[in-house]
Amino acid sequence: MVNPLEVYKVSLVALRRNPMRTALTMLGVIIGVACVVAMVAIGQGASSAIQNQIGALGTNFMIVFSGSRSAGGVRHGIGSVQSLTVEDAEAIARECPSVAVAEPSVRTVAQVVYGNQNWFTTIQGAGPNYPTIRAWAVSKGTFFTDEDVKASTKVAVLGATVVENLFGSAQANPVGEIVRIKGIPFRVIGVLDKKGGSAMGQDQDDIVVVPYTTAQKRLMGITYIQAIMVSAVSPKAIDRAADEITQLLRQRHRIGKGQDDDFVIRSQQDIASTATQMSQVLTLLLAAIASVSLLVGGIGIMNIMLVSVTERTREIGVRRALGARRADIRWQFLIESSMISGLGGVVGIGLGIFIARLISRIGGWPTLVQPQVVAAAFLFAGAVGIFFGLYPAAKAARLDPIEALRYE
């Protein structure tokens, strides 16, 4: 039996005889592995960024919207009926064990004016626990209190984008200044931390938050609420909280069995699961496309190994005459093909990581290289080398030693 170490030495000598050919053969594997690592890093980076943005929506965030209605066979969208009340929000906070906080919410858009500057933005009417529900800290000043809500106080908390456009810089401190919303003066009492864009590309900092009662009475002229913002006690309690809210609101709204709900519940997990599925499909698609180049590299290995078998026919005959078994010949060629793919895999992994980081630095695209992906790429490269080396190895092992010695 031939020593495995000797087989490795012979294989290494054989590869070093034609270094240019070996390098070019290895290049196909290098490009394939680099593409797989880089593309998967891009896909997983996008997935991670989306999940972070969704997580920034709030702590265990859920929102209950008013439902839809049908008129003349035409179905109107969510919020077309005025089915939610402040009492509903209070009942959810009081009677649903899986709910930590629940507050009324209204929303409109308006022109905000300060001095000779103005900005068209979203006006969010909320309760005092809005920063807790949305996991959104106040960087300057304070947030309004429950007393401000009860008294419909004309106070406002500005987002960073609004501050930048009204006061010239996002670092400006507008606390204590007076801004006008629809011509009504509001005193600025705080500034929200910069949060950046949402998963849908919207600027979350382009907002002004006021007490919902103030928004109802002074800005919108309504008595109903448009939605209820809810924070569950934990991420695992979101589904349970949704069930409790559904049962409670159906009871409060006197909805009979078999009748449709007049409200809609949307949770952070709904958005997260959809985004996760989309990003997984994207990652698999990118990996599948990149894997094609790795298979092409494997075909190149097979081609070169078949040429090598032909060139080394006499060498195979001599080794067989000296006592080498067919299994020894087979192992020699399998080791050569696996060494080509293995070394190509290592170089390809390094190149893929470099490309991913380069894309992240130049293009600003988030990338994420995970150890399990690197390990899988290396194993896949080795598997390609073995798979595409099987036929040349088997062909070499089947050579008749006498005919091989006579081969010119």
TrEMBL record:
Residues 288-401 form the ABC3 transporter permease C-terminal domain. It is found in: Cell membrane. Residues 22-248 form the MacB-like periplasmic core domain. GO terms for cellular component: plasma membrane. Keywords: Cell membrane, Membrane, Transmembrane, Transmembrane helix. Pfam families: FtsX, MacB_PCD. The keyword Membrane applies. The keyword Ligase does not apply. It comes from the Bacteria. It is a multi-pass membrane protein. One of its GO terms (molecular function) is transmembrane transporter activity. Its main location: membrane. The chain crosses the membrane at residues 23-43, 281-310, 331-359, 371-391. Belongs to the ABC-4 integral membrane protein family. This is Multidrug ABC transporter substrate-binding protein. It comes from Thermoanaerobaculum aquaticum.
